[in-house]
Design a protein that fits this description.
- This protein has three helices and no strands.
- By secondary structure, it is mostly helical.
- Helix 1 runs antiparallel to helix 2 and helix 2 packs antiparallel against helix 3.
- The protein is elongated and about 60 Å long.
- The relative contact order is 0.12.
Length: 87
């Protein structure tokens, strides 16, 4: 454990940020699973709605440096491609 006060604070801040980032990533994964489930069921409208939510969540995570912006763009692109291939 750190001895210096500022180092102790950084440890606490890092733990908090890590938890927030983990929560964001988990939420994104959940919505992607819901999107893919809707596609497999053939519910195009529901899949479209989940794609919109996924896109928003991914770009928000990229803006807050949880994931890289290119990774977010790549995932959105692949999800959109999946949706368009079914339509």
């Amino acid at each position: 454990m750190a001895n210096i006060k500022s180092a102790k604070k950084r440890v606490l801040v890092t733990k908090k940020k890590t938890e927030i980032n983990r929560r964001r990533k988990s939420e994104i994964k959940t919505y992607i699973k819901k999107f893919e489930a809707a596609l497999n069921e053939g519910d195009y409208e529901k899949a479209k709605e989940y794609l919109r939510i996924c896109e928003k969540k991914l770009y928000q995570a990229a803006a807050k440096n949880t994931i890289h912006k290119n990774a977010a763009a790549r995932k959105v692109s692949r999800l959109t491609k999946k949706l368009n291939s079914v339509a």
